[in-house]
Amino acid sequence: MSHEDLNKPAHAASHGPCVLILAAGKGERFTASGGSTHKLQAMLGAKSVLQTTLASVEASGLPWHVEYGPHPGMGDSIAAAVSATAQADGWLILPADLPLVQPHTLTTLAQQLYQLDASQLHVVQPFYQGQKGHPVAFSRAAGWALSQLTGDQGAASVVKAAAQQQTLQRWDCDDIGCVLDVDTVTALEQARQIWQQRSTF
User: Fold this and answer.
1) Which of 30, 134, 192, 201 is the most buried (most CB within 10 A)?
2) 4-31, pLDDT tens digit by residue?
3) What CATH architecture is 3-199?
Protein backbone atom coordinates (compact mmCIF):
# COMPACT_ATOMS: atom_id res chain seq x y z
CA MET A 1 0.00 0.00 0.00
CA SER A 2 1.49 3.34 -1.02
CA HIS A 3 1.53 6.56 0.98
CA GLU A 4 -0.95 7.95 -1.53
CA ASP A 5 -3.38 5.09 -0.85
CA LEU A 6 -3.00 5.48 2.90
CA ASN A 7 -3.85 9.15 2.70
CA LYS A 8 -7.20 8.50 1.08
CA PRO A 9 -9.88 8.47 3.78
CA ALA A 10 -11.05 4.90 4.26
CA HIS A 11 -14.61 6.13 4.64
CA ALA A 12 -14.71 9.29 2.60
CA ALA A 13 -18.51 9.52 2.88
CA SER A 14 -18.49 9.16 6.66
CA HIS A 15 -19.57 12.02 8.85
CA GLY A 16 -17.66 12.99 11.92
CA PRO A 17 -14.35 14.51 12.85
CA CYS A 18 -11.31 13.44 10.85
CA VAL A 19 -8.70 11.35 12.66
CA LEU A 20 -5.28 12.84 11.95
CA ILE A 21 -2.63 10.13 12.27
CA LEU A 22 0.74 11.80 12.82
CA ALA A 23 3.49 9.63 11.33
CA ALA A 24 6.20 12.19 10.58
CA GLY A 25 8.35 11.73 13.70
CA LYS A 26 11.90 10.44 13.42
CA GLY A 27 11.50 7.96 16.28
CA GLU A 28 14.91 8.76 17.72
CA ARG A 29 14.05 7.65 21.26
CA PHE A 30 13.10 4.22 19.98
CA THR A 31 16.34 3.66 18.10
CA ALA A 32 18.32 5.08 21.03
CA SER A 33 16.69 2.48 23.29
CA GLY A 34 17.95 -0.34 21.05
CA GLY A 35 15.33 -0.49 18.31
CA SER A 36 16.62 -1.79 14.98
CA THR A 37 13.86 -0.23 12.85
CA HIS A 38 11.74 2.91 12.89
CA LYS A 39 9.21 2.46 15.69
CA LEU A 40 6.25 2.65 13.30
CA GLN A 41 7.68 -0.28 11.31
CA ALA A 42 8.28 -2.43 14.40
CA MET A 43 6.05 -5.49 14.46
CA LEU A 44 3.14 -5.84 16.87
CA GLY A 45 1.76 -9.29 16.15
CA ALA A 46 1.29 -9.81 12.42
CA LYS A 47 1.18 -6.08 11.62
CA SER A 48 3.49 -3.14 12.15
CA VAL A 49 2.78 -0.48 14.75
CA LEU A 50 1.52 1.90 12.05
CA GLN A 51 -0.64 -0.78 10.39
CA THR A 52 -2.16 -1.65 13.76
CA THR A 53 -2.97 2.00 14.50
CA LEU A 54 -4.52 2.37 11.04
CA ALA A 55 -6.62 -0.77 11.48
CA SER A 56 -8.08 0.60 14.69
CA VAL A 57 -8.88 3.94 13.06
CA GLU A 58 -10.47 2.22 10.05
CA ALA A 59 -12.61 0.11 12.39
CA SER A 60 -13.99 3.29 13.98
CA GLY A 61 -15.63 4.25 10.68
CA LEU A 62 -14.40 7.83 10.97
CA PRO A 63 -12.67 9.64 8.10
CA TRP A 64 -8.91 9.75 8.49
CA HIS A 65 -5.68 11.19 7.12
CA VAL A 66 -2.06 10.10 7.62
CA GLU A 67 0.51 12.88 7.80
CA TYR A 68 3.99 11.65 6.87
CA GLY A 69 5.99 14.80 6.44
CA PRO A 70 8.86 15.26 6.76
CA HIS A 71 8.15 18.08 9.21
CA PRO A 72 10.47 19.78 11.70
CA GLY A 73 8.10 19.34 14.64
CA MET A 74 4.76 17.93 15.76
CA GLY A 75 3.17 21.36 15.48
CA ASP A 76 4.15 21.52 11.82
CA SER A 77 2.72 18.02 11.28
CA ILE A 78 -0.60 19.00 12.83
CA ALA A 79 -0.75 22.21 10.79
CA ALA A 80 -0.13 20.33 7.54
CA ALA A 81 -2.70 17.64 8.38
CA VAL A 82 -5.39 20.16 9.33
CA SER A 83 -4.72 22.18 6.19
CA ALA A 84 -5.05 19.00 4.11
CA THR A 85 -8.43 18.22 5.71
CA ALA A 86 -9.75 21.77 5.96
CA GLN A 87 -13.35 20.72 5.30
CA ALA A 88 -13.43 18.26 8.21
CA ASP A 89 -16.05 18.52 10.94
CA GLY A 90 -13.43 18.72 13.69
CA TRP A 91 -10.32 16.60 14.29
CA LEU A 92 -9.02 13.82 16.52
CA ILE A 93 -5.24 14.17 16.68
CA LEU A 94 -3.56 10.80 17.13
CA PRO A 95 0.19 10.10 17.12
CA ALA A 96 0.81 7.02 14.98
CA ASP A 97 2.77 5.25 17.74
CA LEU A 98 -0.36 4.51 19.82
CA PRO A 99 -1.32 1.15 18.26
CA LEU A 100 -3.48 -0.07 21.15
CA VAL A 101 -6.04 2.75 20.98
CA GLN A 102 -9.43 1.13 20.55
CA PRO A 103 -12.05 2.03 17.92
CA HIS A 104 -14.63 2.59 20.65
CA THR A 105 -12.39 5.27 22.17
CA LEU A 106 -12.33 7.13 18.86
CA THR A 107 -16.09 6.93 18.31
CA THR A 108 -16.83 8.01 21.89
CA LEU A 109 -14.59 11.07 21.50
CA ALA A 110 -16.28 11.86 18.19
CA GLN A 111 -19.72 11.63 19.85
CA GLN A 112 -18.61 13.95 22.66
CA LEU A 113 -17.34 16.47 20.12
CA TYR A 114 -20.65 16.31 18.24
CA GLN A 115 -22.54 17.37 21.34
CA LEU A 116 -20.57 20.64 21.49
CA ASP A 117 -21.00 23.83 19.50
CA ALA A 118 -18.72 23.44 16.46
CA SER A 119 -18.61 27.22 15.99
CA GLN A 120 -16.76 27.63 19.29
CA LEU A 121 -13.36 26.36 20.36
CA HIS A 122 -13.82 23.07 22.20
CA VAL A 123 -11.22 20.47 23.15
CA VAL A 124 -11.83 17.03 24.67
CA GLN A 125 -8.80 15.37 26.27
CA PRO A 126 -8.86 11.70 27.28
CA PHE A 127 -7.23 10.59 30.53
CA TYR A 128 -6.25 7.07 31.56
CA GLN A 129 -5.64 6.57 35.28
CA GLY A 130 -4.88 10.26 35.68
CA GLN A 131 -2.50 10.43 32.71
CA LYS A 132 -3.20 12.69 29.72
CA GLY A 133 -3.74 10.70 26.55
CA HIS A 134 -4.58 10.79 22.84
CA PRO A 135 -6.32 11.36 20.57
CA VAL A 136 -7.24 14.87 21.63
CA ALA A 137 -10.46 16.06 19.99
CA PHE A 138 -10.78 19.58 18.56
CA SER A 139 -13.89 21.32 17.29
CA ARG A 140 -14.00 22.79 13.80
CA ALA A 141 -13.53 26.27 15.30
CA ALA A 142 -9.99 25.23 16.29
CA GLY A 143 -9.02 24.77 12.64
CA TRP A 144 -7.32 28.10 12.04
CA ALA A 145 -5.25 27.94 15.23
CA LEU A 146 -4.24 24.33 14.49
CA SER A 147 -3.22 25.24 10.95
CA GLN A 148 -0.80 27.88 12.29
CA LEU A 149 1.12 25.58 14.65
CA THR A 150 4.89 25.09 14.43
CA GLY A 151 7.59 23.52 16.57
CA ASP A 152 7.68 20.59 18.99
CA GLN A 153 4.88 21.55 21.39
CA GLY A 154 2.12 20.05 19.27
CA ALA A 155 -1.28 21.58 19.95
CA ALA A 156 -0.50 22.54 23.56
CA SER A 157 -1.20 26.23 22.86
CA VAL A 158 -4.68 25.45 21.51
CA VAL A 159 -5.47 23.20 24.47
CA LYS A 160 -4.32 25.98 26.81
CA ALA A 161 -6.55 28.48 25.02
CA ALA A 162 -9.53 26.16 25.49
CA ALA A 163 -8.69 25.78 29.17
CA GLN A 164 -8.59 29.56 29.59
CA GLN A 165 -12.00 29.82 27.90
CA GLN A 166 -13.32 26.95 30.04
CA THR A 167 -14.06 24.90 26.93
CA LEU A 168 -11.57 22.13 27.69
CA GLN A 169 -13.27 18.92 28.74
CA ARG A 170 -11.66 15.96 30.46
CA TRP A 171 -12.82 12.43 29.63
CA ASP A 172 -11.68 9.62 31.90
CA CYS A 173 -11.49 6.42 29.86
CA ASP A 174 -10.42 2.83 30.51
CA ASP A 175 -8.32 2.46 27.35
CA ILE A 176 -4.59 2.07 28.06
CA GLY A 177 -4.12 2.54 24.31
CA CYS A 178 -4.61 6.28 24.87
CA VAL A 179 -1.32 6.55 26.76
CA LEU A 180 0.88 3.60 25.73
CA ASP A 181 3.04 5.06 22.99
CA VAL A 182 5.70 2.82 21.48
CA ASP A 183 8.55 5.25 22.13
CA THR A 184 11.05 2.68 23.42
CA VAL A 185 11.81 -1.02 22.99
CA THR A 186 10.46 -1.60 26.52
CA ALA A 187 7.17 0.09 25.62
CA LEU A 188 6.94 -2.01 22.45
CA GLU A 189 7.30 -5.19 24.49
CA GLN A 190 4.58 -4.03 26.89
CA ALA A 191 2.32 -3.23 23.93
CA ARG A 192 2.99 -6.67 22.43
CA GLN A 193 1.98 -8.38 25.67
CA ILE A 194 -1.29 -6.42 25.90
CA TRP A 195 -1.97 -7.04 22.21
CA GLN A 196 -1.53 -10.79 22.68
CA GLN A 197 -3.85 -10.75 25.70
CA ARG A 198 -6.52 -8.96 23.69
CA SER A 199 -6.09 -11.33 20.77
CA THR A 200 -6.82 -14.39 22.94
CA PHE A 201 -10.33 -13.19 23.83
Assistant:
1) 30
2) 334 444 444 357 899 999 999 888 899 9
3) Alpha-Beta Complex (3.90)
